[in-house]
Amino acid sequence: MDGAPPPEEDFSALPIAERLAHKNWKARVSAYETLVKTFQATPSETDPAFKPYISNPDLLKKMVTDSNVVAQEKGVETVIAFVKFAGETAARTRDAVVPALVDKCLGSTRQGTKAKAIELILEYVEVENGAAAIVDDILPGLNAKQPKAVAGAVSALKDIVR
């Protein structure tokens, strides 16, 4: 037990696709942080940086359903940046992302994850210029077995109405 702790592994050398699928949660967090910076630096909504995620929304779904709670929160943050900067083209990813948010994030024990999930839902409402489809995605959350998930769904619906 004596001596210095093992050095932190540097994941930044790996390509983003590898880091997103990495078994180590720190590698995934590193990828999420890189993606947030990339999305923020994009000059337009049609930037090629968005293309892989628009054509394969399951990648975004994996971010919001990450098995590690810290990585999950960062994943939700990444998808918020994606929706914010990809504009209306991001609305096509709603079908995959919002039901996963309802299942995994609205009932989270981490307050930050819940707040970011609601923020993401509101971003989708904004880019879709309407809430009808999103409300339909959230309604199954009212029948969840966990009271926390039901409360999260009610809170999201309340914020949409405001």
How would you describe this protein?
With 162 residues, the protein is mostly helical. The chain contains nine helices and no strands. Helix 5 runs parallel beside helix 7. The longest helix has 18 residues, at 69-86. It is globular, with a radius of gyration of 16 Å. The termini are far apart. The mean pLDDT is 92.
Quick check: average pLDDT?
A: 92
| Count of individual beta strands | 0
Radius of gyration, in angstroms, nearest whole number = 16 Å
SS class: mainly alpha
What's the quick description here?
The chain is mainly alpha-helical. The chain has helices at 16-20, 25-40, 51-55, 58-64, 69-86, 94-104, 111-128, 132-138, 147-161.
Short descriptors:
162 residues; mainly alpha
Secondary-structure map with pairings?
Layout: H1 16-20, H2 25-40, H3 51-55, H4 58-64, H5 69-86, H6 94-104, H7 111-128, H8 132-138, H9 147-161
